[in-house]
Design goal:
The chain is an alpha+beta fold. It has 4 domains: 1-94, Roll (Ubiquitin-like (UB roll)), CATH 3.10.20; 100-273, Threonyl-trna Synthetase, Chain A, domain 2 (Threonyl-tRNA Synthetase, Chain A, domain 2), CATH 3.30.980; 301-589, Bira Bifunctional Protein, Domain 2 (BirA Bifunctional Protein, domain 2); 603-694, Rossmann fold. Helices cover 33% and strands 24% of the residues. Strands 18-21-22-29-26-25-23-24 form an 8-stranded mixed β-sheet, sandwiched between helices. Strands 2-1-7-4-5 form a 5-stranded mixed β-sheet. Strands 8, 9, 10, 14 and 15 form a 5-stranded antiparallel β-sheet that branches. α2 crosses α3 (151-163) and α7 crosses α17 (579-589). The longest helix has 22 residues, at 99-120. The protein starts with 35 loop residues before the first strand and ends in a 14-residue tail after the last helix.
Length: 708
């Protein structure tokens, strides 16, 4: 199909002859032939266009002038609208409402932020400014004393630049040109020297008289970035290294429309109300103390209830599936982790190794420097110990502690094991990013023909947990190797088998799943469960990993039915991920209003006056005798004040006891939303409560909602 279309391509791009009808077209009245290209459109049809047409002009032809696209996919590659096409290809628009589109908007908004900051603070030096999951940020050097109060000024400048409708241009530069352009910014020069191959050059993006080093793609005009909001300021370190320069990080969000921005801001406000760090303090669930250390969680009695209930719940299902509980120490020899590959592959995220006291004294007497000690440990010249970064090497040693037969397999070893990771102080956040955490960890040692069933069994555990907690909105991500990375260990054919096993397991589920190259662990592919909470945020929780490599590294064996020795396959799985992170997500998912079976206190008994004290104590005693977590308030405060005091702890129910309840052996049940159910016989309430707990209902429901 060949179409004649005279397109005036967007306000800031020069028009060109983009389509012609027939095999050739005259130029300036002559008969010179124009070369044509065939472009496959999203519906599968093929149009012919003049060679040199831009991707943006084709998107206008496909979608119409009032489209919501901000870039294009050309043969599956993201391209700017200004990209010219001179050969046959496929083209489709990238909507600003898609994942790819919002990523481009966020990246472009980071550039807009840097332009605004440098126009207001000329001495500020932009360093890096990526798109992130929920927005974007840009790090600046030499931006001292910049705080929250300055955000509105910068945001106003961003809107001003956006309204100028500046064309965003991609410009190819040589190495020498790049060095000249960024000569006043040592951070950009460092990136140029470290990241770019000599002589390869790179590209900048220019909007007005401002430019930045970037590969793109970006929006074609700053006018696409009107719906932007700056949200917070924090500090960071250049390249995440605490020994390097301290930077100022400015965060923001951007959306394709005003309504989308309004919805996002509402979600952010709701997220603030649900922040587990605030709720954890209000509900007295956990504490972080500087004298103990950042990222090291102190679980209070109320928080320990939530954690224990979760552990007991999963333990019941582990028994059902034939797991064996084990316990392992919190440290191990460095050689153990050298053999497993955790050291040095994850060296940057681990605590420094520990050296035996006698050896340390000897080295000190010899004048050994810290650098020399580090080199000797890295080379394996001296032995050391390490805080356990993972549980798998310890479980491997339990497997290897005795001879195994095919009759012993599958062998399923489970442990709530605490591990330690060194997180940068700026990355630590409440329960979701910590330095010490407990995994609901298990390792299964199986034969190759048992892999499929055992992986499905692991997945079933995750699904049981999600169902019990009302987490029905989730997707599955299969993490595969990055073909361009060298970090992975093990034979390629073993990786192929493991990746196929994960694909087959994911495809058997009735949920959306995707393949994610580069997301595999260094020793094997994995299946991650990504849960969307009630306000639309995604959290990566449970994981299952198939591993052919660690059994090879540790020379694990079992005697097969043929009398020969064989190598088992190892499956790593953690349905909760870490207890800390999972509890943090749960606090925010439920806004602190846990299901009855998880609530730290399930019932608070409140008396109206001193006349109900004896009955109140009787009710509380019966509840506790039945295994209910109950508190009693028979003090002198008014019932209104008692309700306000106890409401902040979010018990599933309050029992209000007055004269009628005392005389009739009944209770008045008050729900979290204030609705009440009066005159309920106590034993009936107890039976209903126990049933709600035992069936693990996700929402307390003993008080019917009022009809509106």
């Amino acid at each position: 199909m060949v179409i004649l279309l005279n397109v005036q391509y967007l306000n800031n791009f020069n028009p060109s002859i983009v389509k012609v009808k027939g095999e050739s077209a005259p130029e300036g009245g002559g008969g010179t032939s124009m070369s044509m290209i065939s472009v496959t459109l999203p519906d599968g049809s093929v149009n012919e266009y003049a060679s040199g047409i831009t991707a943006g002009e084709i998107v206008i032809d496909i979608e119409g002038r009032k489209h919501d696209c901000i870039a294009a996919l050309v043969d599956g590659q993201q391209k700017d609208f200004s990209s010219t096409l001179d050969s046959d290809c496929s083209v489709e628009g990238i909507s600003g409402f898609t994942d790819d589109g919002i990523h481009i908007l966020r990246h472009s908004a980071a550039h807009l932020l840097a332009q605004a900051v440098t126009s207001l603070y000329p001495n500020a030096k932009p360093t890096i400014g990526p798109a992130i999951d929920r927005g974007f940020y840009y790090d600046f050097a030499d931006l001292e004393e910049f705080g929250e109060s300055e955000l509105k000024v910068v945001q106003k400048k961003m809107h001003e630049i956006a309204r100028r409708n500046l064309t965003v241009e991609r410009v190819k530069c040589t190495d020498s040109e790049l060095n000249e352009l960024f000569s006043a910014n040592p951070y950009k020069i460092e990136i140029i020297n470290d990241k770019l191959e000599d002589g390869a050059g790179s590209t900048i993006y220019r909007q007005g008289d401002w430019y930045d080093l970037c590969l793109g793609p970006h929006v074609h005009s700053t006018a696409k970035l009107m719906h932007v909001r700056l949200t917070s300021v924090s500090s960071a370190f250049w390249r995440g290294d605490q020994s390097r320069e301290r930077l100022t990080r400015i965060y923001g969000i951007v959306e394709p429309t005003k309504d989308a921005l309004k919805a996002t801001m509402s979600a952010i406000e709701e997220a603030k109300k649900r922040d587990h760090r605030k709720l954890g303090k209000d509900l007295q669930l956990f504490h972080v103390d500087e004298d103990v250390g950042q990222g090291l969680i102190l679980w209070t009695p109320r928080g320990a209830v939530v954690r224990t209930c979760l552990q007991d719940f999963i333990s019941e299902h582990l028994k059902r599936q034939g797991y064996h509980q084990v316990y392992t120490p919190h440290i191990g020899k460095l050689d153990l982790y050298r053999k497993s590959g955790h050291f040095p592959y994850y060296q940057d995220s681990q605590y420094p190794p520990l050296v035996e006291k006698d050896m340390m004294a000897k080295l000190s007497d010899e004048g050994c420097t810290c650098g020399e000690l580090s080199n000797m440990m890295a080379a394996g010249d001296i032995e050391g110990y390490m805080l356990k970064p993972m549980n798998c090497p310890h479980h491997i040693k339990i497997y290897a502690s005795q001879a195994r037969s095919y009759r012993d397999l599958p062998l399923r070893l489970a442990e709530f094991g605490t591990v330690y990771r060194w997180e940068q102080s700026g990355e630590i956040s409440g329960l979701t990013r910590v330095r010490g955490f407990t995994q609901d960890d298990a390792h299964l040692f199986v034969t190759e023909d048992q892999i499929a069933n055992e992986v499905l069994g692991c997945i079933e555990l995750v699904q049981v947990i999600f169902e019990a907690l009302g987490m029905s909105d989730y997707r599955v991500r299969v993490g595969l190797r990055d073909p361009d990375s060298s970090k992975y260990v093990g034979a390629s054919e073993k990786w192929d088998l493991a990746e196929d096993a994960c694909r087959q397991a994911a495809s058997s589920l009735d949920v959306n799943w995707s393949e994610e190259p580069g997301e595999a662990a260094f020793y094997g592919p994995k299946i991650d469960f990504v849960v969307k909470d009630v306000i639309g945020r995604e959290w990566q929780l449970g994981t299952v990993q198939v591993d052919y490599n660690l059994p090879e590294r540790f020379d694990l064996q079992y005697k097969g039915s043929d009398g020969e020795m064989h190598r088992p396959v190892m499956i790593h799985r953690a349905p909760f991920g870490s207890m800390e992170r999972f509890c943090g997500v749960l606090i925010e998912h439920f806004a602190g209003k846990f299901p009855t079976w998880l609530a730290p206190t399930q019932v608070h008994v409140l008396t109206i006056s001193e006349k109900q004290v004896e009955y109140g104590r009787e009710v509380a005693a019966k509840l506790k005798a039945a295994g209910i977590r109950a508190d009693l308030d028979d003090g002198d405060h008014t019932i209104g004040k008692k309700i306000r005091m106890h409401r902040k702890f979010q018990p599933a129910y309050m029992l209000i006891l007055g004269d009628d309840e005392t005389e009739n052996n009944t209770v008045s049940i008050r729900a979290r939303n204030g609705d009440q159910r009066a005159g309920v016989e106590f034993n009936l309430f107890l039976d209903e409560l126990l049933n709600e707990i035992n069936t693990k209902k996700a929402i307390p429901s003993l008080v019917p909602a009022k009809e509106e």
